[in-house]
Write a structure and sequence with these properties.
about 500 residues, mainly alpha, 3 domains, about 90% helix
Length: about 500
């Protein structure tokens, strides 16, 4: 490679100012020594040009980086704005979805309410249908008792033909099972025959190999020399006898199989004859079924006419049963009201008993108050007596005997203790008296409130009972009128049915 090529190649890898400095130091030591004048001129010119490019490259890269950063910021702002818009749109979508779900929930609640109403109606209709079915069953039982004589003529086929058909079907099923078993046994025997034939072929191939090895292909009548040949001849003889025995057994098996095949063919012919008989029986069944269908259509037309007549009767009976149910309900209400009246009477009696017991309690409390008053009077009398004993001493006395002074001190201590005890007793008795007064006031108010509430309840129940009794009388009169009308209509319908029949 020339010096210009090396210079260009080394200059191509200089990317920064430090690389250029390293390149200059390298040139000063190695390259410049080998360059001529044209090379030095080219080097100087190219070095200036590349230094300018390096100086311009650094700010250019910084400008490019700033532009890239500005673009990324703009993209980030756009993405943030788009994310905010998408979040707002998502919130709007969620609100719309919530409103839709709420509307769907309301619609579902309305549908549930409608379905519950429909279920109630269906239950009521089912109850009515059950009652109608019970009535229809009763009427049908009566008609069946009348039509028992005509039931024998409505059979599809005679019993003898049915028994014959069933027996033929059973025989066909048994024959099919037998044929399947015989086919399985034939398959097993054929497999055994194939195995025996394969064994015979193997023995024949072995014999051919032995003959080929011993050199006795077409010279069986020649004499054999040596003990080895005699032993081989004996073994071959044994193999031949075994093969003859196997052939005889195979012939016997083939004869047995042929006999079985003939028996199977005969059974198949019998089955074909039975199948023809079954086809004829099926044709007769089809004809009898057609006749039976025609009779059924006639029966259905007759049943429709009968049902129309029964509906007229059921309508009249349903009205009567509804009125009868209403009367039963009113009687039940009447019994309930009688029970409530008896309960209120019992409560009134219990209230009167409680009032009497409270009066007895008040009298007991009054006796206790009288006893307390007597006790207080006795206490005040004792206090007055003690004051009189103190008054026996003169007021101007400056000296008192020691015994009398000690007695007076003792009496004072006793009187103080008794006063404290009596004060405690008085406080306790005062508290008891206040409690008794409060209790008596509460009991009097309770007795008065119970008496007034019991009287009001009794009056209200009596009014309710009177209104219900009047309603019962009114409903009874209406029921009697409707019963008379329905009885007349029933008589008219029965007369019309009798004329139509």
């Amino acid at each position: 490679m020339s010096s210009h090529g090396r210079f260009r190649e080394s200059l191509y890898y200089c990317r920064t100012v430090e690389d250029v400095k390293c390149f200059v130091s390298y040139l000063s030591t190695t390259v410049l020594a080998s360059l001529d004048v044209s090379g030095l001129f080219f080097f100087f010119f190219f070095f200036l040009f590349y230094s300018l490019c390096v100086r311009l490259h650094v700010p250019f890269t910084e400008v490019r980086l700033n532009k890239i950063i500005i673009r990324e910021k703009k993209k980030g702002k756009k993405m943030a704005d788009s994310n905010a818009v998408t979040v707002q749109e998502d919130l709007c979508d969620l609100q719309t979805q919530l409103e839709q779900r709420r509307s769907q929930a309301r619609n579902l609640e309305l549908q549930v309410a409608r379905k519950e109403a429909e279920l109630r109606r269906a239950k009521e209709e089912q109850a009515l249908l059950k009652e109608l079915r019970m009535v229809n069953e009763v009427t049908l039982r009566k008609k069946q008792q009348k039509d028992d004589a005509h039931d024998n003529t409505r059979l599809k086929i005679s019993l003898e033909s049915l028994t014959q058909v069933i027996s033929l079907e059973d025989e066909i099923k048994n024959e099919n099972r037998r044929t399947a078993e015989l086919q399985d046994s034939a398959n097993v025997i054929t497999r055994q025959m194939e195995d025996v034939e394969k064994g015979i072929e193997n023995v024949v191939s072995r014999l051919a190999l032995v003959r080929h090895v011993t050199g006795r292909d077409g010279r069986e009548n020649a004499l054999l020399s040596g003990p080895a040949t005699t032993s081989e001849w004996i073994m071959r003889k044994k193999n031949l006898t075994a093969l003859h025995e196997e052939q005889n057994t195979m012939k016997a098996l083939s004869a047995l199989l042929s006999e079985r095949i003939e028996a199977i063919n005969k059974e198949m012919e019998e089955q074909s004859q039975k199948a023809e008989q079954l086809a004829a029986a099926k044709q007769s069944l089809v004809e009898t079924n057609k006749e039976y269908d025609a009779l059924l259509e006639e029966m259905k037309s007759m049943e429709r006419l009968i049902k129309k007549k029964e509906r007229l009767l059921d309508a009249s009976t349903a009205k009567e049963s509804d009125d009868y149910k209403k009367i039963k309900q009113l009687e039940g209400d009447k019994k309930v009201l009688y029970g409530t009246l008896s309960k209120f009477r019992e409560t009134n009696v219990n209230n009167s008993k409680s009032i009497l017991s409270l009066e007895v309690r008040l009298r007991q409390l009054e006796t206790k108050l009288e006893a307390v008053n007597l006790f207080l009077q006795h206490v005040f009398a004792q206090v007055e007596e003690e004051e009189e004993t103190l008054e026996n001493i003169p007021e101007d006395a400056t000296e008192v005997p020691l015994q009398q002074f000690e007695e007076l001190c003792r009496e004072l201590e006793l009187s103080r203790e008794t006063l404290v005890q009596r004060d405690d007793q008085l406080n306790a008795h005062d508290a008891k008296v206040e409690q008794l007064g409060r209790k008596t006031f509460v009991l009097q108010n309770a007795i008065a409130s119970r008496a007034t509430s019991a009287q009001l309840q009794v009056k209200g129940k009596e009014k309710e009972f009177e209104t219900l009794m009047s309603h019962v009388d009114y409903m009874k009169a209406e029921f009697d009128e409707e019963y008379k009308k329905l009885s007349r209509e029933n008589a008219m319908l029965q007369s019309k049915l009798a004329q139509a029949s």
